[in-house]
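Q: We require from you a single protein entry containing the residue sequence and its fold in token form, and nothing else.
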Amino acid sequence: MNILDWLQNLDAGILLFIQEHMRIEAFNGFWKAITFLGNGGWFWLVLGLLLLIPKKTRKIGLTALFSILIGFLITNVVLKNWVARPRPYVTVSSIYPLIPKPREFSFPSGHTCVSFASAFIYYRMAPKKYGVPAMILAGLIAFSRLYVGVHYPGDVLGGIIVAWVGSMLAYYLMSKSRFLQKKRDMTSGD
């Protein structure tokens, strides 16, 4: 057995364990609602846009939106089409998704990527009383993708890694931008 087959079997085994031992009918609605927050990145996009309104949070909102854009381009434009990994319910007949079946490829998880692309920025740039809940929500959205049966654990891990890279790049580029530099120069003269 090669390493890819081993990883596929591990991914499928973890997903089957979640489906068979962690899914509880009473919690299905909660996890569907959590996964809905990541649909199209709407929650994180709205949050980023709202943060653009007050001057005090504008840099955070702009950096988060830039991080989402980088993550989206890497995940949805490049990696999903390049890797072309089928969804778990396509390759493992005993996986039953709890939500309508997504049509695009599985790796990496876009829900996870957009959630962590934002949360990493909020954790780094906002007060911890906002950054920590953002990280927790991102983690819940990532787990929800496993719970509802539409991603493998490797897809979620891939989404987190892409989000981390994208958020670091967004933070670095925004900290070097003339727009943010001008703001920093104006505040340093106090």
